[in-house]
Amino acid sequence: MTGRRRPVQARSREMVDRILEAATRVLATRGYAGMSTNRVATEAGVSVGSLYRYFGDKDEIIAELRTRCTADVMADLTEAMSRAVSLPTRDAVHRVLTTLVGSLQRHRALMTALVDEVPLGAQGNVLPEVERQLAHFTRMFVATHAPHLEPAEADARIYLAMGVALSTCLRIALDPPPGISEDHLVDLTADLLGLGLVLGG
Amino acid sequence: MTGRRRPVQARSREMVDRILEAATRVLATRGYAGMSTNRVATEAGVSVGSLYRYFGDKDEIIAELRTRCTADVMADLTEAMSRAVSLPTRDAVHRVLTTLVGSLQRHRALMTALVDEVPLGAQGNVLPEVERQLAHFTRMFVATHAPHLEPAEADARIYLAMGVALSTCLRIALDPPPGISEDHLVDLTADLLGLGLVLGG
DNA sequence: CGATAAAGTGAGCAAATGCTCATGTTCTAC
DNA sequence: GTAGAACATGAGCATTTGCTCACTTTATCG
């Protein structure tokens, strides 16, 4: 292990970007197993040695991809949430979900690979930070619109809602059914979440 | 490729079973990448050559595991459904979901590996047949309890419901949250599905 | 310039993997 | 018993993978 170095010159920062782009492409076309460091390096027009100067490990490349992707989605999400607070609840939920779907769609290649190719190890979630952020939003939402719920009950419903929201948005974004409008699906999901959370039981 | 043969003697049928058991174990402990044919063979107390007599390919082992697992879940599910038709709708949904969760839990090791380790290729679903069966059940349910829905609208809701049901049951079965009763989660999910499907919009 | 550090190269190694095949063993049927 | 089929073995091959390292090139700065 030569140890990962940080790129300081512009030249090397560009190279890191080229490597990450190539990795995304290879991941999308050949899958995780087919994404060898040699292949990524070749595809990026870079030598393996250079790759290993900035990434100590094959999985570090993917970790970096995930980090950047998460940051992007989070940015979209927090912006949507800050705008949503002033809207009627149904519209708020709808806006957040729409934003999430769009954000996931813009990272389709990577997300697809992450969802069904990359080993996640122990944790079963592709976007833990996104889920946390969503949960935070939902918690506020529940506190103001269903204050009668006991904390334990609220937790259970939020847990469920997070699973539904994330899995549904992922499905709509990455594997949309033919002949059904995405917007309508988001609409239905928003209803489902609102009704299930606030009413129900 | 020597071509896969079918075991005809009892001896070889036992061996196939031993291989599949070993594969499940290895898959659970080392993951898909760590599941080499050599390791599976050793773990099963069998030679690699024998393994390749009955499985033409590493992935054929997994395909067989999936087939057997699916058959098992399907058996549970169809039985639960046939009993559920005579129940009030809420109880029916609850029973089916409970059965599904239990069935997935009994196959925890394999399911976990399938969900976040095994490359699924194009299709993003772990249990396509189960989803089809569930959709069939739901379609009947919708036809009798919400006949006012247009076909297209019904399709959209069934599509959503399948995603919610499967992903939620998988989550409850494989990654249950601490401190929340599984039964209560199933309860909430049943409400969610019932309300979202029949009312909503 | 000249010196030092950063950036970049690519042949190639050690280990692992999927899989074969020549050989040996056990079962079945006549 | 014995012929022939089914069954079982495991050394080992071809390929791939992740990764190193001795080396060259380029930038930075006094």
UniProtKB/TrEMBL annotation, chains A, B:
Pfam family name, one: TetR_N
Domain of life: Bacteria
Keyword Transcription regulation applies: yes
Keywords: DNA-binding, Transcription, Transcription regulation
Alphabetical list of InterPro entries matching this protein: DNA-bd_HTH_TetR-type_CS, Homeodomain-like_sf, HTH-type_TetR-like_transc_reg, HTH_TetR
Claim: Cytoplasm is one of the keywords in the record: no
DNA-binding region: 36-55
Domain HTH tetR-type as annotated: residue spans: 13-73
Name under which the protein is recorded: TetR/AcrR family transcriptional regulator
